[in-house]
Write a structure and sequence with these properties.
The chain is of the alpha+beta class. The chain has nine helices and eight strands. It has helices at about 10-15, 25-30, 90-95, 115-125, 125-150, 155-165, 165-170, 175-180, 185-195; strands at about 35-40, 45, 55-60, 60-65, 75-80, 85, 100-105, 105-115. α4 (about 115-125) packs across α5 (about 125-150) and α8 (about 175-180) packs across α9 (about 185-195). This is Cyclic nucleotide-binding domain-containing protein.
C-alpha cells in the first residue's frame, strides 16, 4: 500500500483519541481515505442530490441546513475542523439527500465513499469501534440539540451557540447565527440591540 499525497495526521490523531491504531491499520486507513477541497459557497451535497460521502473536516467550515416550504433556511449545525459530516439518509439508505451541506469558507475534507468505508470497517474491529463511538456521541448531541430547541429561549440558544462555537461567533454572518438559533436575522438584530443578558 502506498500512502496518500495529503496530510492525514489530524484524522489519525482523532481516531487515536478513541482507539489505538497499529501501523498496519494506519496504512489501511491511508490507502482508502480521499481528499477534497470545497470552495466557499460550494456544496458538499445539495437537497435531492446523491453523493454518499462520510467526511472529516480538515479546515474551514460547513453548514448543514434545510429549507422549509416558505423558503426559510434552518441550520441544523456547523462542521468545523475535527468534526464529521454527511447525509446519513443518503449514505446508508441510498436515498436522495434532504439536507444541504455547504461550505461557509474554503474547506478541506478527508472522506470515505460508501464502498471505501465498508472496506475500512471490514479491515479491523478497531474501526468498527471508532465509528460506533462516534455514532453514540452523535445521538447524544442530537438529543441535546433537540432539547435546546424545545426548552430554551432564543436568547439562551444564542449563548449556547456562543459557548459552543466561540471562533465562529466572530466570523459568521449574522444570518447564519439566526438560522441556527431559530430566529430571523431581523429578530436577532432586535434582540441584540435590546441588550443580551450575559449568561
Amino acid at each position: 500500500m502506498t500512502g496518500p499525497k495529503y496530510d492525514t495526521s489530524s484524522l489519525e490523531n482523532h481516531i487515536k483519541s478513541y482507539v489505538s491504531l497499529s501501523d498496519d491499520e494506519i496504512l489501511t486507513l491511508n490507502s482508502l481515505v480521499e481528499y477534497k477541497q470545497i470552495k466557499k459557497n460550494q456544496y458538499l451535497i445539495h437537497e435531492g442530490g446523491v453523493a454518499a460521502m462520510s467526511s472529516f473536516i480538515l479546515s474551514g467550515c460547513l453548514r448543514t441546513y434545510i429549507t422549509d416550504n416558505r423558503g426559510i433556511e434552518h441550520i441544523l449545525g456547523f462542521s468545523t475542523p475535527g468534526w464529521w459530516t454527511g447525509s446519513l439518509q443518503n449514505f446508508y439508505n441510498d436515498k436522495p439527500s434532504e439536507l444541504n451541506i455547504q461550505a461557509i469558507f474554503d474547506t478541506e475534507i478527508l472522506f470515505f465513499t460508501k464502498e471505501t468505508k465498508e472496506k475500512l470497517l471490514l479491515s479491523g474491529a478497531v474501526f468498527e469501534r471508532y465509528f460506533r463511538i462516534l455514532a453514540e456521541r452523535s445521538i447524544i448531541d442530537f438529543q441535546a440539540r433537540t432539547l435546546e430547541i424545545l426548552s430554551l429561549s432564543a436568547e439562551e440558544r444564542y449563548w449556547k451557540f456562543s459557548n459552543k462555537y466561540p471562533d465562529l461567533m466572530r466570523k459568521l454572518p449574522q444570518k447564519y447565527i439566526a438560522g441556527y438559533i431559530g430566529v430571523t436575522p431581523e429578530f436577532l438584530s432586535k434582540m441584540k440591540s435590546n441588550g443580551l443578558r450575559k449568561q
